[in-house]
Amino acid sequence: MRKIVFSILLFLVFAVCHADDSLDSVLNKMREINCYMGSAVYESAEKPEQYSLYEIVRDSCTKAELEKLLRDKNGVVRSYALQALVERNEKLDWDKIALGSLSDTESIETMFGCIVFTERVGDIFLDMIENLISQEAKDKIDIQLLETQSPLLHAYKLLHSDKKSQGFYELTRKWALAGNENAIFSLAKYQNKEDYPLVLSLNNKERKYLFFKACPYILNDSLKPFFAEYMNSILPSKYFHNEWKEFYKSLAMFKDDFSKKELRKVFSSRTNRNIRKYHLGFIAEALETYTDGFYDDILFEMWEKYHVVKLDSAKNLLEHDKKRALDCMVSALKNSDEYIHGSGILSFCIENLLDENYDVGKIFVKELPELSGFVFDEFFEQIERFEDDSVDKALLKRLRKEKNGYVAIPIYDYLLSKKNPSFNKNVLEIYNKNKSRYMDWVEKDARKTLEKWNLL
Fold it and tell me: How many angstroms from the chain centroid is the CA of residue 230?
């Protein structure tokens, strides 16, 4: 009996030691790969080896072992340990873990999908357990981020948020006086006149993004000469900069003859023709919230001459000057390639023109065969509103050379739904001619569509 018990104990000891060796091997491999990855990466969305290793750790470790791994020397392992504890719904002092993560500033490589980042472990921790910590802990975290002048991304987000308090102000000002530009920007939202010189110092930087972002808080006529000077300097630029977005937003806030005059400079020959579209895009975004008609003249000119308009602006312009807006819509349909990033503009135009009984059928007949795949859906979704078959014939013409399955399959289905013997014959001929040129999934879906309508 003693021999049996001894044998069992020996087996258990061996099994435990073997398990420990196996787990150590897994962890060492994770440290070697040294990248915090999601479950699907690369264009193929495949599960990486690193995530499979993580699943072993998550499913085999005890709670105590995972807690110990939160203190591992490797930041990737620490991150995966926390993820395992969260996914297993373990009961822990999340507030304590969150506050402790503020000092974890190690940078590690992360990969989710095709996107590779460098992130700090403390940021990963705070993002992962944001919904598990108390409001009291969140308030303490904000204070500590500012007190320690933390390099975590969460400190940057706090400085750029709308959160304000006297305690925040004092800590932010101390950080600003130490030279942190994001803290200097953050001072602007408190609108204390004694801080204006410090905020204005952002204007001396080579890149002026933070200065223009701060301008809405300190805007006054004394800044107009600088705005005019900056405007003149960027018109001939061969490159665009994201700071222009904040510049145009602040310029529009003057909302007077000065702002109109400066905005109109973009229409002049001094503007680099290859870069003008970026200016106009930023201006369109800046003026979108002005619904009272003050900037309508500029908005109409952008739409008429350059095919640049935001959907909300188009809706307002239609209310303010219906005839002029409808004319812009007709022009938009004839220049649809200018709206490939139009966020529903073409659909809006088509719907309104049809509702107003405009004869846009001729435009459809002309445009459908050559429409960009990026805007095809916006035309196609209104196709059933045409009663004559001229538009259907245009679709048939498009189908003859269309290889894009996302365009071809809806056309197949729509034309066959008409149950027109002549169309059916043509569609079947097109399928037989083109099937060898289709990608496998396109050919398969086209065949299924033909079978659905009993043509195969």
Answer: 29
